[in-house]
């Protein structure tokens, strides 16, 4: 008798067109009268089987709750078919491996689920099997409402109990496309998988942690793993096995090393292997690259808080066509959500926080678009309290859109620019709030040769001079620079230097939990007031996704800066040019510096009291936001009294903008009378005013 683990009944069925009892008979005939070691056939299609670890018996029929089977070995020895259900009794506990055989059909999957009341039925691999739950060369399966663990007992040496372990593992090697997998409402926890890194320095090897293991041997342990292989690495087939149409949802995955969820394709990188190139990607058009297709990971809670070896929350590689949405990723290691060798992936509406370095990993980012990734869209995420907020690490090549995210309080870089020169990134309409480091957007060396277009972002820091890296290929446009003094990049001709008028900052709200899901609404505290200088100050961007972080349509009026678009357009704004009567300029109207609006700007005399004045009209009495566009090519702030209708209401400071052709915005909230009002900027020092371009007045 061939051992169960080597049975071939799970391969593509030779007699798929025959009824199951006829297929079984055919197998017996081919065996010349001897029943070979294949799984026993199930009953007619759409049959429900019951399994009870406490009061079942494998001699029972298993066809009703009064006559349940007992053991995993009974289930594993059976070939199931389309529409069948395998129901494990709630509260039951089984030790070993669950590997039922057979495949479902499109629209009629085989379902593993629970029955009765109580705790989810538990499959405990106990570190005695590689996979606590396994499917191999099978398709159309739904796994629902299980608790799964695979913990090898600890030894006296930390890490020595880590091994090639997974909770739920779906794979194959039959050169087919395997379709239709749903993992739903499972609780996978405490999987003591080994940590194998692709590269690195072997001097860092420790028990359970190994560097330079290559692509195929690395990062394929953890809670839920989808990957493929070949029957013989020295003589691989010409066609890969591809996994298609996969959903992982509504689940809790905790303390599972290496990753919470990992997806990989075989490539032939191990010693003695003949390379296939299926799982690695030399270029965006690499014809050898054969990714898995159509994966969705949504509404899960993933944490590695309880293990020093738990790294990525989601390691998403070798996929074309993927969506990762509405997950909470809490206190993982290395990267909360990472894509690698992937195409056409959207990462949206996730909350990622608390990522740190673990198990020899070099990174600690919330979200990472990494090597060889194209068509990556990262949007509507709340990323906070990690080491780095979002890492763009597109080595070799890649393209990514980073938009309408709220990125706050990360302890190193809010955005880390680390891509090779062939990569491209659009970074627009994000709200960055830095109160934990000296960096907002950071890159260095050759990684600043990549092209990054940075537009319409709120860049706010409570720490002065937080780094905003620049180069000839990094372009800043119409960003708002707020908080402490920031080094406004010289090329940002539409820069707004102002208080963005957050609703409530910093954010003081709880993070997401398994019960609540992602706390996306916590980021609403970084919405801006209706009269904010961020309103109507952005530039229009085509293909912007059609909505903001909160779901408001784009655009209402002119584009806003930051992750939130004012739903009513932010009130009514009227512009008053400094060179247009009845404005008064105590100096000259000049046009010798580029970037101004209208036909010129006010170049005031270098003297105290050499003012610029505007006459504005208000339909009703009330508050208004005034926004002054200015340039100060010196390194010294220029101060002025803001005088409204003859009364000084406050003193404003116009900081250096880096050049006279670089313009910023200074805002203030004032009260206006109904009808005509005068607004004067009266310099208080002999240096005089900054150059004044215009005054915008916004009323609710």
From TrEMBL:
The keyword DNA damage does not apply. Keywords: Signal. PROSITE patterns: CBM6. Pfam families: Beta_helix, CBM_6. The keyword GTP-binding does not apply. Residues 1-25 form the signal peptide. InterPro entries: Beta_helix (IPR039448), CBM6 (IPR005084), Cellulose-bd_IV (IPR006584), Galactose-bd-like_sf (IPR008979), PbH1 (IPR006626), Pectin_lyas_fold (IPR012334), Pectin_lyase_fold/virulence (IPR011050). Residues 574-698 form the CBM6 domain. CDD domains: CBM35_pectate_lyase-like. This is Right-handed parallel beta-helix repeat-containing protein. It comes from Streptomyces synnematoformans.
